[in-house]
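Honest question from a wet-lab person: if I give you the sequences of every part of a complex, can you actually get the arrangement of the whole thing, not just the pieces? Trying it with mine:
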Amino acid sequence: MAVERTRELRATRCNRCGRTFFPAKQVCPGCSTDEEIAVVELNPRGTTYSVAVQMMMPHGCEPGPYVVCYADLEGSGLRVFGRLECAPEEARIGMPVELVVDDREVASDGFVYYHFRPVRRESEENQK
Amino acid sequence: MRDVAILGVGMIPFGRYLNRRLGDLGREACWLAIKDAGISPELVEAGYMGNAMGALLQGEMGVGQTVFAEVGLFGIPVLNVENACASGSSAFGEAWMAVAAGRYDVVIAAGVEKTYTEKGGVLYIGDAEPELRLGLVLPGFFALMANRYMEEHGVTAEQIAKVSVKNHRNAVINPYAQYRREVTLEEVMASPMVANPLTVLQCCPRADGAAAAILVSAEYARRFTTSPVLVSASVLGSGLGENPSDIIHFKMNEVAARRAYDQACLGPEDVDLVELHDCFTIAEVQHYETLGFCGRGEGVRLLEDGDTEPTGRVPVNVSGGLLSRGHPLGATGIAQIVEVVWQLRGQAGERQVEGARVGLAHCMGGIKGQDAQATTIHIVRR
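Yes, you can. This is the full assembly:
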């Protein structure tokens, strides 16, 4: 099978069990079918579920500190891991964030690297 | 299924054995277990070896064949079991199954690992999961767990760090532990930060080590002893793959614990001592809850009330746990069972828990989504 090398964040929705998976899955891990899998756009907006500051990174990565988080995405309800592009002291649970594609090449197997960045809530913007 | 007994156990002190090979460490533990069982090695019908990183760190495959040959076990079926940090306990589970099902009467289960390398830092565990590919290290995962736990249950980083104080204190009198020095809460909190709020003294250290056990049918064991140590439950599960999943309470722990208690016809209130997977301080706190020793959010109180101290209601990690013993992946799960067996036999020396009759060993390995890849629970009784 050819490897797709799009830079989009793609999720899959299984039309049999109704569940959404990200990253995309060829076979639905929810009900084990490959017949009704649709590629869907992922709503990148979410809220951090937990945050942490890692002082160490795996081999081959530049040294920390790095902020990491799990965020709950709107719409799909998925809890997704990613690095969070903010200062360690700014990181907190409940932060509005959005998922963005990294400024680097898609991996040879098609994996799209992504991370979170903070977004301003509309209410905060209205106050400005 | 028939009853299975643990006839012999052995382990070497965990530590740094830079100039010794997997075969050397494994041989010592296996030989101790064979001697302890009081059987002749040629009676062993099959061997199960837990090792996770031999191929990656030492370039060795077939570690089981290498080790078992060192004690003269040739020609028998040998199975190498890799289940991340639960490799040893998973190998033990396979050995149990083989005897319980009636396939063999006498088998050996062992675990060996060398995790010390010239380069230190966080152990590399591959990048199959998106989390790992995007830069998550295991201390980071448990830090995410800790921060969410603190938010939901209103506890502090200091309260969680007390697990490290308890387990280091327990290790002082355990000659098999790698770090046998008491630490104060201030020292734990002031030690270098790995992933906030987890400081280095709240993360299990690397270690080299080996442990082994001889399993036999209960009927066979009665030729040697009138009160054998029996395996009452052996459970292996893999992560449930739910998303979103509550990362502060490993779901598979709860499922595995329920299965194990059902199998043993016991409840958490019947357990006299526990060796559990304290890879990080927060892990021990949430294991208290998911294994049923207290309710959700009550783990810190259980600890602060002294219930999990060696003299408490349910002593946890009297050996010092992974936090002090160190964590040679494949050896850890069997070392936990070895400690429990010594305790049930009344052979644990200074760290003996008086009157212990039922012990539980819990081990988990790897990350799959927001759960562990493998979770094992063994309940052992006398």
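Two things worth pointing out. Chain A touches chain B at residues 21, 23, 29, 49-59, 61, 66, 68-70, 72, 77-79, 81-83, 88, 93, 111, 113-115 (CB under 8 Å). Chain A has one helix and eight strands.
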